[in-house]
Specification:
The complex is a heterodimer of chains A (113) and B (117). By secondary structure, chain A is mainly β. Chain A is built from no helices and twelve strands. In chain A, a hairpin with a 6-residue loop joins strand 5 and strand 6. The chains are: A mainly beta (113), B mainly beta (117).
């Protein structure tokens, strides 16, 4: 079974600064997808960014980027120029070739004014 | 619009009662999932289904049951055997195809909050 670990239960950052959320996973597969999801207080799941394991280039979406280290099985999320609206729970997720979808335990991010 | 509909938004269960949470999608997706989320916690997989008339247990299937008689529908029943059912339940679908690790798009419903009376 795949496992996804987010080692930071809570983090905080000052507005306009940069923060990095960590995620590690365990799998024996070579072909899979990784995601970061944001869950605000409304509890709606919002896709932040996704990464295909076969792509070496790190994914980027505006202020959000990832550092994908396949050999180390690491998938960290960097948020640049943090905004108050970034305050939320962030979940790392993994989909294997069999469509088994596994989430990490989440990191609660607080952006301070 | 295509999407996932979960209902009801809030549900209350009495002691010893079975309750069913609805998840309907018109995205023509094969794979559907049910997750449980406790306050401040992550999402734990209850059941998932990759095709009609087939489903697999997730990490916390005890006390729950599902069916997949139609592609569009994947209802979750919380049985009386689930002694601590209070949680937020999320349904998700994955497209476009089963065992196609390309162009996956994951969609979530808006969730059902289940509480015990």
């Amino acid at each position: 079974a795949q496992t996804v670990t987010q080692s930071q239960p809570e983090m905080s950052v000052q507005e306009a600064e940069t923060v990095t959320l960590s995620c590690t996973y365990d799998t024996s597969e070579n072909n899979y997808y990784l995601f970061w999801y944001k869950q605000p207080p409304s509890r709606q799941m919002i896709l932040v960014i996704r990464q295909e394991a076969y792509k070496q280039q790190n994914a980027t979406e505006n202020r959000f980027s990832v550092n994908f280290q396949k050999a180390a099985k690491s998938f960290s999320l960097k948020i640049s120029d943090s905004q108050l609206g970034d305050t939320a729970m962030y979940f790392c997720a993994f989909i294997d070739a069999g469509n088994m979808l596994t989430f990490g335990g989440g990191t609660r991010l607080m952006v301070k004014p | 619009d295509g999407g996932i509909t979960q209902s009801p938004k809030y549900l209350f269960r009495k002691e010893g009662q079975n309750v069913t949470l609805s998840c309907e999608q018109n995205l023509n997706h094969d794979a559907m999932y049910w997750y449980r989320q406790d306050p401040g916690q992550g999402l734990r997989l209850i059941y998932y289904s990759q095709i009609v008339n087939d489903f697999q247990k997730g990490d916390i299937a005890e006390g729950y049951s599902v069916s997949r008689e139609k592609k569009e529908s994947f209802p979750l029943t919380v049985t009386s055997a689930q002694k601590n059912p209070t949680a937020f339940y999320l349904c998700a679908t994955l497209g476009p195809g089963v065992r196609e690790p390309t162009n996956e798009k994951l969609f979530f419903g808006s969730g059902t909050q289940l509480s015990v009376l």
